[in-house]
Amino acid sequence: RPPDMNAAPAEELITEWESEQARLRRLLVLEDTEAWQSGPGFSGLQRVGGVDLSFIKGDEQNACAALVVLSYPHMELLYEDCRMVTLTAPYVAGFLAFRETPFLLDALRRLREDRPELLPQVVFVDGNGVFHYREFGLACHLGVLSGLPCVGVAKNLLQVQGVQKSEEHQSQIAALRRGGDSFPLTAASGAVLGKALRSSDKSSKPVYVSVGHKISLDTAVRLTHSCCRYRVPEPIRQFACSPHVGFLHVSPESNGD
Predict the structure, then answer these.
(1) What dihedral angle (degrees, nearest 10) is formed by the CA atoms of 118, 120, 126, 129?
(2) From the centroid of its chain, how far is CA 88?
(3) Is residue 217 helix, strand or coil?
(4) Residue 147: which domain range?
(5) Which GO terms describe its molecular function (predicted)?
(6) Residues 188-229: pLDDT tens digits?
(7) The dihedral of CA 135, 139, 145, 147: what is its sign?
(8) Cross-strand bridge partners of residue 124
(9) Residue 94 and residue 135: Cα distance in Å, rounded?
(10) 17: in domain
(11) Is residue 127 part of a domain?
(12) Which of 45-55 are b and which e, b meaning 16 or more Cβ less than 10 Å from the residue's Cβ?
């Protein structure tokens, strides 16, 4: 019998997840680690990946786990893997990674085994990195477990750690005049957890960029902007254009963690 995704998870499970999240967070690297990250034009960067889980409307158990790899800087499709999967873990705010990461890691494992020469040098995740309740979102979880540099890019603002969709926030968005403009997402503690980025001249609505793993925030923002033809970076936007997943919609949960 399939698990009840709406049932309240046992306290033991939450405690186990909290412990594992804290353990993995100690392995997080928030700085640039790759040679291609240092130059203004990202010289040496050839392959950028994107991952996402998309859901059929009304079905929170079955999803399409997708991985694409694009060439950089031309954004041409090099590799695509879309598989229907059945989720077994419940959705709990702040612990989205335990529900989704296993299937995304599977896609990366298949790529490593089948076409290792196409392994991405950085992965964009449709969700958050350190901009998270405990500063360890989906992009961090995937980054640490895969060992790859990761960038979290969320379409909706996660109101967390004192960051609010306030009048001040709206006025900061209005002040983003052109693609590449950004402002910091500052927690009540004073820590900068990410940046709101106007990713394209064509879109006044920002995306929310945060570090996943093995990349600095400034580099993550520059890279996101360089991969945007429209509002959403191409490695993530490609899913909406794929014939395999065109009938699916992204669960609102994917922006929460």
Answers:
(1) 160
(2) 21
(3) helix
(4) 29-255
(5) DNA binding; metal ion binding; RNA endonuclease activity producing 5'-phosphomonoesters, hydrolytic mechanism; single-stranded RNA binding
(6) 999 999 999 999 999 999 999 999 999 999 999 999 999 999
(7) negative
(8) 50, 151
(9) 10
(10) no
(11) yes
(12) bbbbbbbbbbb
Rounded to an integer, the average pLDDT of 127-146 is 97
Nearest one of 58, 45, 31, 49 to 212, comparing CA atoms: 31
In a domain, 20, yes or no: no
For the chain, strand residue ranges (E) read 47-55, 62-71, 77-86, 122-126, 150-154, 182-186, 192-197, 207-213
Residue 24 located in a structural domain: no
Q: What are the tokens at 257?
A: 């963690």
- Of 26, 22, 24, give the one whose Cα is nearest residue 14: 22
Question: pLDDT digits over 140-181, tens only?
Answer: 999 999 999 999 999 999 999 999 999 999 999 999 999 999
**DSSP state string for 70-134:** EETTT--EEEEEEEEEE--SPP-TT-HHHHHHHHHHHHHHHHHHH-GGG--SEEEEES-SSSSTT
Count the domains in the chain: 1
CATH code, domain with 41:
3.30.2170.10
